[in-house]
């Protein structure tokens, strides 16, 4: 009798331990290929592992609102690819999502096929992003570099349908500036367009031989970039952590806060990306 009771107790203990192991929470992060993917795998995943979470990273090669759709639908718990102005421009999903924590700013750059200003003024076309917030950034960059002037009526309402009416041509004419999605910009570079304006996070290729870093002609001023900090975006979170999802997100938020205040992380950004990617306030 005692033997059977002992065996039963052991079986119960084994099942309890097995149940505890199987109940380990997983956080699914959606991000885009390039710098964001590198930061997630190198820094975010280990920080969450230390908090007891498994982490699954879903990497998107197509940059767009489909990433937000997946977070809303629960295919990912959180995503890291966008700034708040971009999120606010996603009218279908913005009310269901929220910025969890700001991580880093990614300077927008003007890239020429041969790293020369002549690429912009030689009669070729220049590609710019077609989403509202990044389109406005791109036009401001072209204006700051002296290729165009923006009319006094230029405002936050400028979008892909009306932007050409806001451009006063200099060395570039309005008809030379083509608004495309990110895939179109990358695919057309060196073939259809003499230069493109891209977020460095999208432009970056881990292979140095293919990297656009060496082809930069102009860079966005930090005073503009700081208004477009890339954030982790989640579904709505209960600040008290009363449900399992909210608890996971609050743990992630704490990990991100610690990371962005960590001198080792800030040094990596400074050493690798030389002020092109940085945490605002730490420069």
Notes on the structure:
- The protein has 283 residues and is of the alpha/beta class.
- The protein folds into 2 domains: 152 residues, Periplasmic binding protein-like II (D-Maltodextrin-Binding Protein, domain 2), CATH 3.40.190; 118 residues, Periplasmic binding protein-like II (D-Maltodextrin-Binding Protein, domain 2), CATH 3.40.190.
- The chain is built from 11 helices and 13 strands.
- Strand 1, helix 2 and strand 2 form a beta-alpha-beta unit.
- Helix 2 crosses helix 10.
- The protein is globular.
- 36% of the residues are buried.
Quick overview:
With 283 residues, the chain is of the alpha/beta class. Helix content is 39%, strand content 24%.
Helices and strands, with pairings:
Layout: H1 2-22, E1 26-32, H2 35-50, E2 54-60, H3 66-72, E3 78-83, H4 84-88, E4 97-106, E5 108-112, H5 118-121, E6 126-129, H6 132-144, E7 148-150, E8 167-169, E9 177-180, H7 182-188, E10 195-199, H8 200-203, E11 216-219, H9 222-225, E12 229-235, H10 244-260, H11 263-273, E13 277-278
Sheet with most strands: strand arrangement? 2-1-3-12-4-13
Envelope shape: globular
- Major sheet details: 6 strands, mixed
Q: In whole angstroms, how far apart are the ends?
A: 71 Å
Number of strands: 13
- CATH topology assignment of the largest domain: D-Maltodextrin-Binding Protein, domain 2
Radius of gyration: 23 Å
Unreliable stretches, pLDDT < 50, 5 or more residues?
Answer: 13-22
The average pLDDT is 87
Number of domains: 2
What CATH architecture of the largest domain would you give? 3-Layer(aba) Sandwich
Give the CATH class of the largest domain.
Alpha Beta
Number of helices: 11
CATH superfamily of the largest domain: Periplasmic binding protein-like II
Q: Which structural class do you get from the secondary structure elements? A: alpha/beta
